[in-house]
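Dear support,

I submitted the protein below through the web form. The confirmation email said the job was done, but the results page showed an empty box. After a refresh the structure appeared. I'm attaching both so you can tell me whether what I see now is the final result or a partial one.
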Amino acid sequence: MSSKIFSSAVVGLDAEVVEVEAEMGGGEMGSFAIVGLPDIAVSESRERVRSAVKNSGLEFPRVKTTVNLAPADLRKQGPSYDLPIAISVLIASGRLVPKISFANCLFIGELALSGEVRGVNGVLSTALCAQKFGFANVFVPAVNAAEARLVPGINVLPVHHLKQVLAHLLDKEKIANFPKENISFENIESLFDLMHVRGQEQAKRALEIAAAGAHNVLMSGPPGSGKTLLARSVPSILPKLVLSEALEITKIYSVSGRLPPDSGLIRVRPFRAPHHTASGAALVGGGTWPRPGEISLAHRGVLFLDEFAEFPRPVLDNLRQPLEDGVVSISRAAGQLIFPAKFMLIAAMNPCQCGYYGDSEKHCICAPGQIIAYRKRISGPILDRIDLHVEVPRLDFEKLDSAPPGESSAVVKQRVEDARQRQIERFANTKCVANGEMSSLAVRQYCELSEDCRSLMRVAVVQYNLSARAYFRILKLGRTIADLAKSEKINIEHLAEALQYRPKVE
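What the results page shows now:
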């Protein structure tokens, strides 16, 4: 006798349907084989399933048991197949004769030896897969139910123990559907606020522009000038998430195993701050079967790289493609995966190795050659992809001691959201959500210049030795400044301000 039920395999950020087939007999008594390209975690499910079935009050079959996970050319990994394997084996052995139809059901979950069902990764991707292929009921670990219920059109059945599923299929005790929730995105208070930063008005203005248009920023200044505090205040001025963005972020965190237990939708924009000793694989993603890295975990949020020049140059150069394309493509022998990576890069660095080059109070002890070598740690192509280069100088005593508090993040955030709303309306029929994501074709369409503006840019291209990429990035920046000023057109003062944020030519 054979049986077939359905589960799923997560590939990248998406899931595919997997058929879990079981058959009894035809070999050595008591042997248990799992085929279909399983990894070690899947192969080890034999022992977990045996014990879970025994501790659920049933006897495991004493004949040869073969489980096939189809399609056979799709690699299966992780412990999420334990629950469907156990149910398929019990049906094939005749120990479980379902009284209700399970043809439209999809099962995932790891089994403990006691029969309890533990949480797994990628449940949101599985729920989306079930919706796509018309599965009405999805049996998921109870700790993952809040995540699965985000997908409309399916019934989410939270499972605590294997016994529960057996009782449900025997129509003895039904598992109640997990209730849906009304999704809302309220303003969430941050520990960091721009009004806590004394002075540094130019840097605050640059961060407001960056948040309004999703632009990249590099802050340079001596130690203790407030660069880190400024960067950590950026999430407090970013616009609220919309549902589509929140689902993208939640899916990434679910697949990578970073979604907190019993939590559903991620409602705040990510803020990732990897240490400068992070490897290239940690930053962009990797592994035998690649997982999302820091740049994907920062999708629709902020990637903060403190001590920017201390990162190894090859590691930073991995950012080139993601900063340009908004995705990262990882190729391995097992295949190619593409992860989203539309993030704001906020970087902070010292002007030299000792940190005091150009400081008004403390003398720099670095030799000229050391200063040049320090700055060369960051390649030109990376610097060319950064829209705003900002000096963050030392503050004098008067500003530290008696300067009045600046604008709160709430006030700045309102201006940012107003500017973003204009961009949403502008890009309603495109895939862009912010000015920083515009292609060169979109720049020509939405960033028309007057003759005065063209004359200014003509001079700037020569004076600043601008590349084609830098030219288009200045136009995007000018468009964002115009949006903050509630201007339909890019005026010469908007471009002039955008040009102030280019690195100084030395």
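Response: this is the final, complete result; the empty box was a page-load delay. The chain has three domains: 2-169, 194-428, 438-506.
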